[in-house]
Write a structure and sequence with these properties.
With about 70 residues, the protein is mostly helical. The protein contains two helices and four strands. This is Transmembrane protein.
């Protein structure tokens, strides 16, 4: 049996937390902008910290597992 939980969670978080795809925090002119497809260095840093925090919570603290087969 393969554990697909980490793969699915990491992929979903990567897609959702890519700066500018769904939201960008901080934005160029505002605090938050939605679907602007632009990014900056500080925005990448903030989204990386959010990604690390959420992946840690889902995989280590909660222990999400999805088994196949």
């Amino acid at each position: 049996m393969a554990d697909w939980g980490p793969v699915v969670i990491a992929t979903l978080l990567f897609v959702v937390l890519s700066p500018g795809v769904v939201f960008q925090l901080p934005a160029k002119g505002r605090v938050v902008e939605f679907v602007n497809f632009q990014t900056s260095g500080i925005s990448m840093l903030v989204h990386t910290i959010i990604y690390f925090g959420l992946i840690t919570i889902f995989l280590i603290a909660i222990g999400v597992h999805i088994y196949t087969g």
